[in-house]
Amino acid sequence: MQDLPNLILVGPMGAGKSTIGRLLAAELSREFFDSDHEIQARCGADIPWIFDVEGEAGFRQREAQMIQELTEQEGIVLATGGGAVLSEENRRRLRERGTVIYLFTTVEQQLKRVAKDRNRPLLQRPDREQVLREMFELRDPLYRATADVVVRTDRRSLRAVVNEIVRRVQRLIDPLQAKA
């Protein structure tokens, strides 16, 4: 399946972008990148620190630069941060430089998955559920507008999600082969 383009995962925090991305990359023998992890490695600081020092706007600038760099590569699997789609420039780059897969999950599932996570600056408030609902209202239409494929991750095994992504992306590339 080396004829597949870059595969780019978008979706909210807790959707499984990093975990599914690693498995997908292994399945396809591709290099995996997580834009948030790459930003942290380059800065030598974690995302909460970047938010504290530079604010969300500073982080978003770093994110846009990282997405530009990573999407210039070929044959990769890329997991983006949940807010990457907020920038029209990022959305355009993602659409132009790969097949975009929206990993859809419900707010209820997000709450379960990020319940103990303290590394998410936008959730360091007592009203986590309300924050996630507001983000969903804003971001879900952007994820959908950017994505070539939408895959639901709730109550599904990681393997089932990876298999569905491979099958559906292959169908985009070669509809006749996918039916065989």
TrEMBL record:
Major location (coarse)? cytoplasm
Q: Where is the signal peptide?
A: none
At the top level of its lineage, which domain of life is listed? Bacteria
State the reactions this protein catalyses: shikimate + ATP = 3-phosphoshikimate + ADP + H(+)
Cellular component terms, GO, for this chain's entry? cytosol
Sorted alphabetically, the keyword list is: Amino-acid biosynthesis, Aromatic amino acid biosynthesis, ATP-binding, Cytoplasm, Kinase, Magnesium, Metal-binding, Nucleotide-binding, Transferase
Q: In which pathway does it act?
A: Metabolic intermediate biosynthesis; chorismate biosynthesis; chorismate from D-erythrose 4-phosphate and phosphoenolpyruvate: step 5/7
Instruction: State one Pfam family annotation.
Output: SKI
Give the UniProt record's GO annotations in the biological process aspect: amino acid biosynthetic process; aromatic amino acid family biosynthetic process; chorismate biosynthetic process
Role summary: Catalyzes the specific phosphorylation of the 3-hydroxyl group of shikimic acid using ATP as a cosubstrate.
Show the HAMAP family listed in the entry. Answer: Shikimate_kinase
UniProt family annotation: Belongs to the shikimate kinase family.
Protein's name in the database = Shikimate kinase
This protein's species is: Billgrantia kenyensis
Q: What is the lineage of its organism?
A: Bacteria, Pseudomonadati, Pseudomonadota, Gammaproteobacteria, Oceanospirillales
